[in-house]
């Protein structure tokens, strides 16, 4: 399992690795925060973007004096590879060995449903930045998320598809082996029924499948206006590519959820994904100095544009740092109390938590459409 340490200007990485953090003089000058993200495997695009967002914010926070009157934050990022067991092992290490008061992540809802019960039981604040399934924060009182649940975003996307593009008759597809994908589908179905869509068929597939021809051939014969799809980015890309190969015309739009909201979709599927709609709490061209600076700095540092996963992670690092400061100590209980008082205005816009530890508002949600392999905001 790869293990990454990030801090700014405090100490060379080599000496960090050489001695357990808790016994170094350096450790007294730092607060160590953990993160569990997908940095390898098919879903690595999500975790890599999150890592980029976290580290950019971390650098800024530490350069501006850190937390608790001058302590730097050191971030230990563990790679889960999208594997639940690996994510749980990472959590056990971060909590047991590194004694972190806060874990950021894990990346996927599927992973959070495994990790959350462990960190919650150990009373370690855990903040998902990209976990959008129903029931995440219900895992327990130490589980927060800064990501909007699909149930807040998907209805906006489907309503736009109806109002702007006259979508009435749909086929629905989802991966039936992933908690996020199933939950996203449930939200899509509820919204479709509410909007009075005709659901021509519901088709499932496995996240590791590469042949979707049976489902797509059936859908092709149904003359639908659009296909909703709830899955992670790799299988979505495969479905979209195969749909066009099988002759489902570009006029039949795909409508995705959070799993689709990654530039990876355009990288894999290219023009085949054009027209695909997603709801998003953030978009790259969002006006305002904070976002413009974030986009420019992220690009300079990472050599590519940020995406929504990076933006949510960037704000989350600030939210966590502020909570540590408000708490007055690197103490999980106190940080938990402080998070409830969050009143932050970052690249995502104004942010606070509900009593249920979810984002308080979905007002900033916009709908993006894929064009030439890139997401653009719908005017
Ligand atoms: C989730 O796993 O919840 C995502 O939104 C990708």
UniProtKB/TrEMBL annotation:
Keywords: Amino-acid transport, Signal, Transport. Pfam families: Peripla_BP_6. It comes from the Bacteria. Coiled coil: none annotated. CDD domains: PBP1_ABC_HAAT-like. One of its GO terms (biological process) is amino acid transport. Residues 1-27 form the signal peptide. Residues 30-358 form the Leucine-binding protein domain. Belongs to the leucine-binding protein family. This is ABC transporter substrate-binding protein. It comes from Skermanella stibiiresistens SB22.
